[in-house]
């Protein structure tokens, strides 16, 4: 771990302190981002804090302390989702809620997820400082395993809570170390029975707004601190396994090979062009691959890869997935290998409704911020809730569009502006 990296001081270096007002503190946001950055800090100044790890739980416990300090009651459900709650004047009403996640990809950045959690907390901190009791309950959520690194399928906590998680499939999953989902749960003090009980028949949430970094360049190009999300692309993750026959690299003739990696490579090259055959907005990625036996002088006998295919239109996304599956089945016999295909996750895209967009439009007008409308190519916990309740997302500017990387950066001024926008939007929701 680096002993010299100080995210808090780096954030404060060019902060415009004019934004520390109305109970929202940029200095507090910087300290909390800095404190979280130390949990899983890497030598490259990134963070590795994957879902269902002790580090993810350590980060949650720190947030739970902050929630209690802000006057919130705190619970953690069987899936590990953390809920901080402020009672409302009408405490029987459904809550207005916000939040995000604190897990990361391996060697990730410090803003993807934590910003949304800390911005949501700033709303509670502001009201506490001003002595405001909201008209309805306000809740802050920290969802478990949004990134999905451990089991190749993200949004785990929000899917568990909304009932979108197939437990029959989930219990069959194993991580890279061969541990089953149940065994991993046990390492975090959770059980399968408790995890299943996280499902809610009624969410008890009226509206949900998530702050997140853009992970793209549009706001930077428009020179704007924040933007309004109009829709969230739906991700589909598929595991594809090619199985051939391992053999000696020197003694096996080229015309007598069952090379699983050659088959996988052919498919990967097809995946690169697959979206453009169907859609102008679709994207497809192979970001994870495992080669066995993985020896320099051994013909690969087995290759496992994960495809991540997304689009803002469900029909075109599903067509791209279908075309990739068909291509894999065509490649396998042509290279004398077997192929096994397992769907890991398929989440519908989520459009943001006119009512929630209208609330953000009004906030931007009131704050005299030019409006930039964005589409999220990344999946977010908000999309799981969006299948049942009105949701919105506020994007904060990302430097160079970089994310899932130690170079991920959003200025403290932009982080604090996003907290002000969130607070204003939450307060408008409270009045409806």
UniProtKB/TrEMBL annotation:
According to the UniProt entry, its GO molecular function terms are: hydrolase activity
- Which Gene3D superfamilies does this one have? 3.30.70.360, Zn peptidases
- From the UniProt record, list the coiled-coil ranges: none
The family line of this record is: Belongs to the peptidase M20 family.
Q: What is this protein called?
A: Zn-dependent hydrolase
Enumerate the spans annotated as Peptidase M20 dimerisation domain: 234-333
Assembly and interactions? Homodimer.
What keywords are assigned to this protein? Answer: Hydrolase, Manganese, Metal-binding
Origin superkingdom: Bacteria
Known cofactor(s): Mn(2+)
- InterPro entries from the UniProt entry: Amidase_Cbmase, Bact_exopeptidase_dim_dom, Peptidase_M20, Peptidase_M20_dimer
